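Page 37, continued from 36.
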């Protein structure tokens, strides 16, 4: 099964030094590496943009871009944006704060039938309201 990987996971794997990671983060980085090796990772444009934003050095930007350029991109159609808005409205009506990018990730994941790999704790609230699946590390 393919997996849609959220920005915080990429940031942990690509921007943080190995020596600075705790045991859980090392396990997550290992799982990401395994998913990469198996060709199971999906990307969407907004996650790609978030990951590349804020990189000051062109050399580092190019290195990160090269590291993710071969990943399979999911197309985002108009219906996904509309469903993201519906999901946002549903979350808000249930008192769950959300962001536009998070709701887009949720909408694309649901439409594609794939789980989301994230360390963003907001998704633990979304999963109580939305029909999303979170990827669980074994």
């Amino acid at each position: 099964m393919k997996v849609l990987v959220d920005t915080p996971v990429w940031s942990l794997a690509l921007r943080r030094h190995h020596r600075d990671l705790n045991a859980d983060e090392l396990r997550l980085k290992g799982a990401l590496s395994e998913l990469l090796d198996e060709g199971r990772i999906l990307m969407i444009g907004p996650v790609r943009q978030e990951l590349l934003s804020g990189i000051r050095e062109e050399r580092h930007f190019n290195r990160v871009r090269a590291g993710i350029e071969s990943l399979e991109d999911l197309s985002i159609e108009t219906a996904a944006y509309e469903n993201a808005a519906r999901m946002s409205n549903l979350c808000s009506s249930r008192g769950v704060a959300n962001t536009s990018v998070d709701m887009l990730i949720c909408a694309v994941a649901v439409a594609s039938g794939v789980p989301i790999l994230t360390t963003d704790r907001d998704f633990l609230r979304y999963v109580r309201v939305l029909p999303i699946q979170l990827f669980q590390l074994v």
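Strands lie at 3-5, 41-43, 72-73, 116-117. Flag for discussion at group meeting. The first strand starts at residue 3 and ends at 5.
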